[in-house]
Amino acid sequence: MRERALRFGPERLLVGILAEPTADEPSSDLGVIFLNSGLLHRAGASRLHVQIARRLAPTGVPSLRFDFTGVGDSDTRSDGLPFEQSAVLETQAAMDELTRLRGVTRFVLYGLCSGSDVAYYTGLADTRVVGLVQLDPFVYHTLRYAMHRIAPRVLNAESWTNLLTGKTYLAPWLRKRLGSAEPRDGAVDLADENVVHNPYARAFPPKAEIESGLTTLCRRGVAQLAILSAGQLEHANHGGQYEQCFAQVPFGDLLSTAWRGAADHTFTPLAEQAFVVEATTRWIASRVASATAAATAVAVPAAL
Amino acid sequence: MRRGRHHSPGELTMQPLLFGNPKAPLYGAYHPALAKHAAPIGVVLCAPLGHEYMRTHRALRQLAAMLAKAGHHVLRFDYRGTGDSAGEAAVLRLADWITDTADAIEELQDMAGLRTTALVGLRAGALIAAAAAAGPARSVAQLVCWDPVTRGATYLDELRAVADGPWDGGDIIGAGGLALSAAMRSDLVALDAAACVPAATTRTLVIGSESKAEYAELAQAWSAAGTTTDAVIVPCAGNWDDMDRIGAQLLPQAILRAITDHLSDAGVTANA
């Protein structure tokens, strides 16, 4: 395995690291592109991109981890294109570069949070994409989600105390109804010049839109590994929710999921990092194996 | 790569590279000077560790760009086992990161064709920079410690608060995403910036975004040991720990300007 630091893409604005097998290691026509999560640079949250890339390369799977324009080490675009469009174009530029450097023809896109969103939209736009690894992807509430959220509160005396003292998520609604002012929490307002914000404000599209998109991907045979953390409890709070909320999508055996109740949104604990690295590398290995054997069905890795 | 060349504004302003041992290279981001400076220096930036490394990336990149625009050659780099550099933090010792810092200085001097170099360290990076300036990089001309970790033991207490599990729960403990071995923890406990006295010829600055007694104490300790050191506070709201982990990053412009001015001999305007 070896790595190279690159500039590539239109006007060579993009900066990335290629991880590739050496001549004495296997070689595959499948490559992986790692996508930024918000403003975190290409090493990935908890250095996950680096860890996974270095596990994959000796097995023959090259990868490119890169920064979108305006993020990490990449320069900024001058055309003012919205992030939602530029991110897809730049992901495709990374795919082109990996094809040029390694002859890769099939791609797995890996992303967490906003990176997951870009993976999904690029997958829809580009038929070279055969797999998505999505951490904390678009997911929607179910009846069971509501039960998981409400039941512990109903049974917890502290929740009732919080409700009565205004320390609850219902407090703003109650204050509005009662006409009282917002509380002061002592938070410091940072001057705008001292903070740089993510240009992408993540908003979940209507569920029907994502259902339709996932159905399109399934019909193309695009496989998906979805790992959900407890770091976004406002969206997901139990295992099986992803499958349930997208019950209408004909995933068949194209979908593998995992719920990590001890993980935060950036998978900070070492045990959670190890899980993501192991699950992802095994799942991608299964994509390589399935293509090699021309298999139509893909086994779900035992680790999940 | 051409050495010592001044780039014009509008050219790509940063060159990514891997340097050092080819079997275990370090990642570097070289920002060549964008303008001529009467007395250009090379500036090596030492990043913090763990979650703070992720949250300070934008600020250090911005500082590098400002220094390059002011006429200095700058190298940002990742220590072994961090970012895009080779290795795993769990098997490293603090001495490895101090050596990496000295190697980064040598790489920058080689690329830029300069012999005069400054070190700027942020948080734990300041502690590492100080140790380098007192050790293998003793010839460094300037040292800037920005919001420095002044005592390894205190820093470990901070890490303990964000640890994955019990602090005494084994050889490798996760804290802020970083794998800390028992050996690394003992290295950190033993490291006190006040004991890392830079050479008397090193122009040294401790700069903080808020007033802390430990900053003034560090400057006094170094001055008493023979290295004249200034302590400056440039108030900037916010700290490296409380930012949204993905959606925003801190970019304290006033401190970035103050460090750029200091290294460009324009002086620092706000004194503690």
From the structure above, extract its key features.
heterodimer, A: 304 residues, alpha/beta, 2 domains, 8-stranded mixed sheet, 9 helices, disordered C terminus, B: 272 residues, Rossmann fold, two-stranded antiparallel ribbon, 7 helices, 11 strands, 19% strand
Strands, helices and their partners?
The complex is a heterodimer of chains A (304) and B (272).
Chain A: E1 2-8, E2 14-20, E3 30-34, H1 48-56, E4 63-66, H2 83-102, E5 106-112, H3 114-125, E6 129-135, H4 143-154, H5 157-165, H6 171-178, E7 195-197, H7 207-219, E8 223-229, H8 241-245, E9 255-260, H9 270-292
Parallel strand pairs in A: 3-4, 3-5, 5-6, 6-8, 8-9
Antiparallel strand pairs in A: 1-2, 2-4
Helix pairs in contact in A: 1-9, 2-3
Chain B: E1 15-19, E2 26-31, E3 42-46, H1 50-69, E4 73-77, H2 94-112, E5 117-122, H3 124-133, E6 142-146, H4 152-161, E7 173-175, E8 178-180, H5 182-190, E9 203-208, H6 213-224, E10 229-233, E11 248-250, H7 253-263
Parallel strand pairs in B: 3-4, 3-5, 5-6, 6-9, 9-10
Antiparallel strand pairs in B: 1-2, 2-4, 7-8
Write a concise synopsis of the structure shown:
Chain A is built from nine helices and nine strands. Chain A is α/β, with parallel strands linked by helices and 304 residues long.
Could you explain how this protein is built, in words?
The complex is a heterodimer of chains A (304) and B (272). With 304 residues, chain A is an alpha/beta fold. Helices cover 37% and strands 17% of the residues of chain A. Chain A folds into two domains: 2-142 and 206-292, Rossmann fold, CATH 3.40.50.1820; 145-183, no CATH class. In chain A, strands 1-2-4-3-5-6-8-9 form an eight-stranded mixed beta sheet, sandwiched between helices. In chain A, strand 1 and strand 2 (14-20) form a beta hairpin. In chain A, helix 2 (83-102) packs across helix 3. Chain B has one domain (15-150, 191-263): 3-Layer(aba) Sandwich (Rossmann fold). Helices cover 33% and strands 19% of the residues of chain B. Chain B is built from seven helices and eleven strands. In chain B, the strands form two sheets. In chain B, strands 1-2-4-3-5-6-9-10 form an eight-stranded mixed beta sheet, with helices on both faces. In chain B, strands 7-8 form a two-stranded antiparallel sheet. In chain B, helix 3 links the parallel strand 5 and strand 6 (142-146). The longest helix of chain B has 20 residues, at 50-69. Classes of the chains: A alpha/beta (304), B alpha/beta (272). The A-B interface holds A 3-7, 12-13, 15, 17, 37-43, 45-47, 50, 72-73, 75, 113-114, 188-191, 193-198, 265-266, 268-271, 273 and B 12-18, 25, 27, 29, 51, 54, 57-58, 61, 78, 82-84, 86, 162, 164-165, 172, 174, 176-177, 179, 236-238, 243, 245-253.
